[in-house]
Amino acid sequence: AQFDFYFLSDDGFYLKANPEFDKQNNLISFKIKNIIPLQSEDNKTLMGDKTEGDAEAIDIKNGDIFIAFERNHRVLRYANEKKPEHFINPENFKNLILNEGIEAMGFIKDQLILITENSKASPQTVKAYLYRNNVLTNFYYPLYKNYNPTDLTVLNDDEILVLERSYTPAIGNRARILTFKYSDIRENEIVRPKQLVKLKPP
Q1: What pLDDT is stored for residue 1 in this prediction?
Q2: 187-194: long-range pairs with CB below 8 Å, 24+
Q3: How far apart are CA 61 and CA 111, in angstroms?
Q4: Three-state DSSP state, 37
């Protein structure tokens, strides 16, 4: 059966693509189906607009597309790919740092988890949120050395995987994958993810 992958650009658009496999079922490429420019909440095209269209995180729930943006911090809901609307009151995000806002986002149990890239709550933590029943709850995600959260995915009703990245000129690119549990989230407290794997240059 064919299925779609969604690839989000921080330049105001996303791609729909189908995976292609070889005879051993190894992924060999993606075939692009559509390039879809994003629309703003006031019906302007965001493609190429780095200030308004800096899209960083995407998830899909019940056919609706949810996208988080930096710079102009907000989460928009695209219902049936029509004109979007604010899913969370953007006033909640007005104190996030310009280009270091929501970077990772995903639904779990009909609730939305959001983690910022580097909007610090303290020198060792960044701001994170759980949105449920129209209420936004704060929690904190810990920082490790030069790593910052860049994406997340939900495995089941309790386990969340987080991708972190790091770059320094001396070492180059590095990445870590960590896990924490939904049941560990407490208002105004720090979650304690466990490292599963670290990737670094040879």
Answers
A1: 59
A2: 187/137, 187/138, 187/139, 188/138, 188/139, 188/140, 189/139, 189/140, 190/125, 190/139, 190/140, 190/141, 190/142, 191/128, 191/139, 191/140, 191/141, 191/142, 192/142, 193/141, 193/142, 193/162
A3: 10
A4: strand
Q: Is 167 helix (H, G, I), strand (E, B) or coil?
A: strand
Tell me: pLDDT of 39 over 90.
yes
pLDDT tens digits, 78-107 = 997 678 999 999 999 999 999 999 999 999
pLDDT, tens digit, 9 for 90 and up, residues 113-128: 999 999 999 999 999 9
Beta strands in 42-88 (DSSP E): 55-61, 64-69, 74-78, 85-86
Fill in the amino acid letter for 174.
R
Cβ atoms of 177 and 161 closer than 8 Å: yes
